[in-house]
Design a protein that fits this description.
10 strands, Rossmann fold, 4-stranded antiparallel beta sheet, 7 helices, alpha/beta, 6-stranded mixed beta sheet
Length: 239
């Protein structure tokens, strides 16, 4: 689960400061896809950066399961991110020289995993490539894959350490409508199958059916909420 508890984020602007995220509280439970939408410059990416622990809020708390990320050191935050958070960016950002399978396996090397953990990662990599429909393409490099296939690899890579939280930024922005719909359906399927708490930034509400809930942000604040009643109660009861 991920809970943003009254988080505010500002940036310097000359002699004053601009508020990018304005006192937002939002909870995303396991096996739930929370969509975040709003106009350009509304604070969606800043909110996702806070959720990813890439930046600390000016005030408020970011809870990843039962850990308050805002209180951690830089080293502790990096470990939390590596072990519990998967991130999918707008662009797939794959390493050109690595095959689809190697894109996933390199995460074990970067994480400094033990030999036993690496064996588990290898098994999970094959499982994930099968889950995203790329088993037959596991030996191909990014240049040999379509845009949709590269995004599937990026999703599998983000899940290879079995994170409890998945953060996705505009996953369909570089895809046509058909491929975009396939990616959204895949994210929804994997979220529910693997009990991941997923926050997903999108500008395309044509994929609304793939989301379990949706909040709209304008000028850094939530202005509209389309979330099941039982989840609203959960958010109200969160920290």
């Amino acid at each position: 689960m991920i809970t943003l508890d009254h988080v505010t984020l500002t940036f310097p602007d000359g002699d004053s400061r601009i508020t990018a995220v304005d006192n937002i509280s939002l909870t995303t439970p396991p096996a739930f896809v929370m969509g975040i939408t709003g106009p350009s410059g509304s604070g969606k990416s800043s909110l996702l950066a806070l959720a990813a622990t890439l930046i600390h809020p000016d005030s408020g708390h970011v809870w990843i399961n039962d850990v308050d990320a805002a209180t951690l050191t830089a080293t502790e935050t990096a470990a939390l991110r590596r072990e519990h958070i998967g991130i999918v960016f707008q662009q797939s950002n794959l390493v050109p020289s690595l095959t689809a399978r190697e894109q996933l396996l390199v995460m074990a090397e970067l994480g400094g995993d033990s030999r036993r953990q690496r064996a588990t990662i290898r098994e999970r990599a094959d499982d994930l490539l099968h889950a995203v429909g790329l088993t037959e393409h596991s030996g191909k490099r990014p240049a040999q894959l379509s845009g949709g296939q590269r995004q599937r690899v990026a999703i599998a890579r983000a899940l290879v350490h079995a994170p409890s939280v998945l953060l996705v930024d505009e996953p369909t922005s570089a895809l046509d409508q058909e491929r975009g719909a396939e990616i959204m359906e895949l994210i929804s399927q994997l979220t529910h199958e693997r009990s991941t708490a997923t926050m997903l930034v999108t500008h395309d509400l044509g994929h609304r059916d793939s989301l379990d809930g949706l909040v709209t942000i304008v000028d850094g604040a939530i202005v509209d909420t389309d979330v099941p009643a039982e989840h609203q109660r959960l958010s109200a009861a969160s920290r």
